Amino acid sequence: MQEMNLEHIDISGKPPIEEIEKQYYYMAILKKWVEKKSKELGRPLTCCTVTFGCQMNARDSEKIVGIFEKIGYQMVEDEHADFVIFNTCTVRENANLKVYGRLGYLKKLKEQNPHMMIALCGCMMQEDAVVEKIRQSYRFVDIIFGTHNIFKLAELIHTRLESKSMIIDIWKDAVEIVEDLPSERKYSFKAGVNIMFGCNNFCTYCIVPYVRGRERSRNPKDIIREIEALTADGVVEIMLLGQNVNSYGKNLEVPMTFAQLLEEIEKVDGLERIRFMTPHPKDLSDELIEVMSKSKKICNHLHLPVQSGSSRILKMMNRHYTKEQYLELVDKIKEKVPNISLTTDIIVGFPGETEEDFLETMDVVKKVRYDSAYTFIYSKRTGTPAAQMEEQVGEDVIKNRFDRLLKEIQSISAELVGRDAGTIQKVLVEEVNSQNHALMTGRLSNNILVHFEGNKDLIGRIAEVKLTECKGFYYMGKLVEGSDSTI
């Protein structure tokens, strides 16, 4: 089923039983309401969506925006809007505090604009204590829902308009995956595609399995159909999204591995680049490495979170691999894909981490030689096993280790990034450079940025660019003549 035209939906009777048809039914009702309200006010109704957190949240927000635009709202960046929705993150404790602070500001805006509506969704809303706090202390919020029922947004808005009271609709888990919802992409030429939802890993520091639920893989035919529709609409690069993409397919009626899915996606005409995140080292198979080595479309970049270089700490983290197994995996990858760009995530100051444990992490960094790394100071997350662990590491010790780690990573990264200087590379042109409008900014297959002279007609194209100079973490380049018609 494709996206439905709201004008053709009969809203005179009861809502349909089929979930996707039911949601379009509510969208059609809301479209009439929005048109009436806009006429009364003499202007379009506006909506502001604020996204916190990861790429999964960003993709969810595209669906949220798609629904709002479908029912007639005009999207704006300013929170002085008729409808404000926060898509929240709860990976770190201070993310919650940030949302509470913003809610205080929204209360003042709502006092000035009584018909304003406020909704909260996302991971933070999956926590019982958070929902109770909002219910008690932030009564001006209109709708609260979580990560599993974003597809119900139109129905929830309709229920709120009918009831005149706060609507709370939180699911602890979900089995159903609702396809064919409206979606509004941030970029016309690249898009995120969910291949699965949830996580079964239960790393001891991570709240995600508790707020995103168990792993659920999408039907491969639905994934391929979505990608084919995207490429027909001008998309040349996709990012496959999942908390652990390597676990894809395990719960399907007919099991399919992530590697097999990639092989099917590669066959899609018009698609030029395939990215994915995030793979888990414990599940990264020889089959996947082989597919990557032979692929003409999978980007030359792999994000492989290590989190710690200490086997002792990795066991406490419940990561299910040792330092030695991780390094062995990296060796396999580099042997099969010699020019691969590796990036990672590292947590500094996990409970019980000693200087010896930290030096093991430094050793992994020196041996693997990452192009870049996302380094995090351990954040105690209420509700996770790690938060209850003894031997929480002192702030001064953590800061010292963090600074040393960052210095090492930056030193290695500076050496590696310049390795392609002087060569001609394919660049996906993404935007006009924000600092110098005479320059375009694009991205190499290995995810490194390139700035070069050009015009905005190049945006969304893959152009050949000579990398003339490395500037540390990006390149300056020169457009190769005639390359503007690569696609």
From TrEMBL:
The lineage of its organism: Bacteria, Bacillati, Bacillota, Clostridia, Lachnospirales. Its cofactor is [4Fe-4S] cluster. [4Fe-4S] cluster 2 binds at C199, C203, C206. Residues 414-481 form the TRAM domain. SUPFAM superfamilies: Radical SAM enzymes (SSF102114). Its main location: cytoplasm. Keywords: 4Fe-4S, Cytoplasm, Iron, Iron-sulfur, Metal-binding, S-adenosyl-L-methionine, Transferase, tRNA processing. One of its GO terms (cellular component) is cytosol. Belongs to the methylthiotransferase family. MiaB subfamily. InterPro entries: Elp3/MiaA/NifB-like_rSAM, Methylthiotransferase, Methylthiotransferase_CS, Methylthiotransferase_N, Methylthiotransferase_N_sf, MiaB_methiolase, rSAM, rSAM_horseshoe. Catalyzes the methylthiolation of N6-(dimethylallyl)adenosine (i(6)A), leading to the formation of 2-methylthio-N6-(dimethylallyl)adenosine (ms(2)i(6)A) at position 37 in tRNAs that read codons beginning with uridine. Binds 2 [4Fe-4S] clusters. One cluster is coordinated with 3 cysteines and an exchangeable S-adenosyl-L-methionine. Residues 185-415 form the Radical SAM core domain. Monomer. It catalyses: N(6)-dimethylallyladenosine(37) in tRNA + (sulfur carrier)-SH + AH2 + 2 S-adenosyl-L-methionine = 2-methylsulfanyl-N(6)-dimethylallyladenosine(37) in tRNA + (sulfur carrier)-H + 5'-deoxyadenosine + L-methionine + A + S-adenosyl-L-homocysteine + 2 H(+). GO terms for molecular function: 4 iron, 4 sulfur cluster binding; metal ion binding; tRNA-2-methylthio-N(6)-dimethylallyladenosine(37) synthase activity. [4Fe-4S] cluster 1 binds at C54, C89, C123. Residues 45-162 form the MTTase N-terminal domain. It comes from the Bacteria. Signal peptide: none annotated. This is tRNA-2-methylthio-N(6)-dimethylallyladenosine synthase. It is found in: Cytoplasm. Its EC number is 2.8.4.3.
